[in-house]
Design brief:
Strand order of the largest sheet: 3-4-2-1-5-6
Shape: globular
Bound molecules: 3-methylbut-3-enyl trihydrogen diphosphate, magnesium ion
Strand content: 5-15%
Structural class: alpha/beta
Distance between the termini: 24 Å
Radius of gyration: 18 Å
Number of strands: 6
Length: 247
């Protein structure tokens, strides 16, 4: 941790937590045990990101496409997430994290929604906390479609003239309206793709792909990703030459 102090730590890190299933299969274990280990990894990573001064951590936990998986795997993932939420009360990190959700939450079962609301409300007032956003039943295309529908509804009600709709307004209709765009995206699990995660918000995000499977991910992997980020030059289409993940 110490060597990172003073380095260009990203304000917002997004993570595609991939590789749980392969981690388990390689050990001859059921995939659900990989998801359980992945949930433990998330706890550690959130704590570490808070320690190094990251302001926002957004993690991809379940995509709109993950419903294609066998029912027992899906219900196992939902059960684990609810367990993660329900044990939060006794977690020493309780006061250092503000939890939020993005995705199509309204179509989930009422009891799941209740758990999501409960942890969001319980942690909302935490001061000096990292903003942990869990993307669940999240798909970027679905998010953009839902935002477009909201804009269309406003127009139909005569509250929006189409010419008024600009990037800032559309951003404000997305699930992520309250947060800055990610500075760094990390994908664990040896795949080099985005898999429908934050397509709008990642426009100028630095991308970092690693072979490490999510359950094997440790503080040192965050260090490596942040070091890679610090060495990048961000230009946002311009010509600036700043280093250190800066602009
Ligand atoms: C990521 O791990 C977790 C979810 C997608 C819910 P996977 O379950 O995709 O693990 P692999 O990619 O099969 O190893
Ligand atoms: C992305 O992983 C979704 C999550 C990590 C929640 P997937 O395992 O679903 O992605 P693909 O299918 O390999 O693209
Ligand atoms: Mg996967």
């Amino acid at each position: 941790m110490s060597e990172l102090i003073g380095a260009a730590v990203p304000v917002h890190i997004a993570i595609i937590m991939d590789g749980n299933g392969r981690w388990a299969t390689r050990r001859g274990l059921p995939r659900t045990l990989g998801h359980r280990e992945g949930a433990e990894t998330l706890k550690r990573v959130a704590r570490y990101c808070k320690d190094i001064g990251v302001g926002y951590l957004t993690v991809y936990a379940f995509s709109t496409e993950n419903w294609k998986r066998p029912g027992d795997e899906v219900s196992g993932i939902i059960r684990l997430l609810r367990h993660y939420i329900n044990t939060f009360e006794s977690d020493p990190e309780r006061d250092r994290i503000r939890v939020n959700f993005i995705g199509d939450i309204e179509t989930l079962n009422a009891d799941v929604q209740r758990d999501f609301r409960s942890i969001s409300e319980r942690t909302r007032g935490n001061r000096d906390a990292i903003n942990l956003t869990i993307a669940f039943n999240y798909g970027a295309r679905d998010e953009i479609v839902r935002a477009a529908r909201k804009a269309a509804a406003l127009a139909a009600q005569g509250e929006l003239v189409p010419e008024q709709l600009d990037e800032a307004m559309l951003s404000g209709l997305l699930d992520t309206r309250a947060m800055p765009d990610p500075d760094l995206l990390i994908r664990a699990g040896a795949e080099s793709r985005i898999s429908n995660f934050m397509l709008w918000q990642l426009a100028y995000t630095e991308l970092y792909f690693t072979d490490t499977l999510w359950p094997d991910f440790r503080d040192a992997d965050i260090d490596a990703a942040v070091a890679a980020y610090a060495a990048r030059q961000r230009r946002f289409g311009g010509l600036s030459t700043g280093r250190g993940g800066g602009s």
